Amino acid sequence: MSNRKISISVSLVSTLLILGYYLLNLILMIRQGDLNSEDVFRLAAIVIIASIVMNIAGNILTTIVINIIHAIQTQVEKEVRMVEDERDKLIGLKGTQVSYVAFSLGVLIAMLTFVFGQPPLVMFCLIIFFSLLAEICGDLAQFYFYSRGS
Amino acid sequence: MEKYQVRNNIRKLRFMNGEMTQEQLAEKAGVTRQTIIAIEGGKYAPSLELAFKIALAFSVPIGEVFSYEIGDTQ
Known about the structure:
The complex is a heterodimer of chains A (150) and B (74). By secondary structure, chain A is mainly α. Helix content of chain A is 84%, strand content 0%. In chain A, helix 1 runs antiparallel to helix 2 (37-74) and helix 1 runs antiparallel to helix 4. Chain A is elongated. Chain B contains 5 helices and 2 strands. Chain B has helices at residues 10-16, 22-29, 33-40, 48-58, 62-65; strands at 4-8, 66-70. A two-stranded antiparallel sheet of chain B has the order 1-2. Chain B starts with a strand and ends with a strand.
């Protein structure tokens, strides 16, 4: 597996964990009949901050681990080239495009729930859900493009 | 229906240039080894700039590395 695929895997796993945490807390709130705006906004803030921190930390840790493994395997203390070339940028852009489409559709669905009489809190929860789902779709799309070649 | 494809002789040129590895070519061209693998396998068509860099790495004209030919017919 290439270094870039490893980075995308780390991003995918961290986003899945955050999505799982978000859904679990949301379902617990709904079951307890305690779905209030303050708790939902707090949960959303935790999810967004965790997403940013885990992505940054994940990238840093991935780079460190790859370099350690490379040094152990090759017995050479040469830094692994973490180059982002034109193909990586192209696939990254295609992944972003897929994320954008997924998020746009999600926002549309969220807004439709509001149009059909659901409270604004439901729309907000759905927007956060679809933002995480869009991130996952983007990562999966990148995997697909890497396996295809471009 | 005829479809044109970008074809290349990178593998042959690598072996003719002192059995250059994909990693070595990648370093010379400023890209990753995976990109060279994708180009060699015909899965990725490089940009014009990258095509020139690869040709420069082999010290040959670009036409000796890449060609635009009819690929699979449908």
